[in-house]
Amino acid sequence: MTQDAAISVLGAGSYGTALAIALARNGHRTLLWSHRPEQVATLAAERCNKVFLPDAVFPDSLIPEASLERVVKASRDLLLVVPSHVFADVLKQLKPFLRKDSRLAWATKGLDPASGQLLQQVAREILGERIPLAVLSGPTFAKELAMGLPTAISLASTDAKFAKELADLLHCGRSFRVYLNDDMVGLQLGGAVKNVIAIGAGLADGLGFGANARTALITRGLVELQRLGVALGAEQETFMGMAGLGDLVLTCTDNQSRNRRFGLALGQGKSVDTAMAEIGQVVEGYRNAAEVHQLAGRHRVEMPICEQVYQVLYEGKNAKEAALALLSRDRKAE
Ligand SMILES: NC(=O)C1=CN([C@@H]2O[C@H](COP(=O)(O)OP(=O)(O)OC[C@H]3O[C@@H](n4cnc5c(N)ncnc54)[C@H](OP(=O)(O)O)[C@@H]3O)[C@@H](O)[C@H]2O)C=CC1
Ligand SMILES: O=C(CO)COP(=O)(O)O
Questions:
Q1: 142 has binding-site annotation
Q2: CB proximity list for 333: less than 8 A, separation 6 or greater
Q3: Portion of the chain with pLDDT greater than 90, in percent
Q4: Catalytic site residue from 194, 317, 320, 332
Q5: Considering the chain, what is the average pLDDT of its residues?
Q6: Domains in the chain, ordered, with CATH?
């Protein structure tokens, strides 16, 4: 039986691995679970996730683990970092192993594909009202975090003690700054909507548009995010922080973003399937575009950029026509 750990990270893709490295680098015994036992054996033998983060060596206190039961029982605090489309599934799998004092955080960015709900609602439906929940969101490319490059993030929780203790585990005065925030809804929406806008920014760049268009998309994308956020009960000022403006700028402007690269490939005329295959990792914005479309419709929120991205992805609209549709909208006050 694996000994107790300070925290267990579930999901050994690029971001789960990077967060586990950051936690272990802070000196905390950290378990890292993958759903594929053969991957766990490779991670343990190579002390590195060569597929996603080949330059980041695991600190000694990072322990790959194949048993879901063991990782859930070994630590009070669980950090889920799986793609949003398997979030609910993994919660159902881990539920039977939860301790009485378990607390759950996630760094997944997205919504529930089946319902378009916030992941917080999914967690509540599956795990009940009692378990403390927390969310991490903000501008954090896995590779830079894993390399110990300076990074800042926001953390919100349903439980102030959990928020503080999780921030204490993650925060590193030399490289990883954790801001506490009390807007769980805002943090979750920021992480989902920025993926869609980043696809839009990639599309614009793929079409050969310039810095003016990209910056207009970021700025008006922020307005769309704020509108949806306020309609769902988030605080408007959250979106001027790490999980709003911060993550929008990061993912819309840097080619480390898979969502941006996906948009770039589509703008250059590649098909959805080819673009996805070339990236070979999760592109959350593809599903998020449909979920945000659903959510905006349900709450009657106008989100023209997200709507055009949706139409390109799901209704076969040509990217140039989508750009024209945005430019030819009625003039209005900012
Ligand atoms: N990468 C980044 O820089 C950042 C990512 N995020 C968010 O983190 C989340 C995870 O993304 P990321 O790590 O980048 O994704 P990756 O594409 O790097 O990896 C996804 C991982 O999830 C695993 N996985 C797939 N299905 C399951 C399942 N049913 N149970 C358990 N694990 C599963 C995959 O395993 P397999 O290969 O076997 O399918 C793979 O290891 C996303 O929501 C993303 O938006 C947030 C901030 C930064
Ligand atoms: O969320 C991210 C950085 O904050 C990662 O963005 P991508 O999923 O677009 O790569």
A1: yes
A2: none
A3: 95
A4: 194
A5: 96
A6: 7-180 (3.40.50.720), 192-328 (1.10.1040.10)
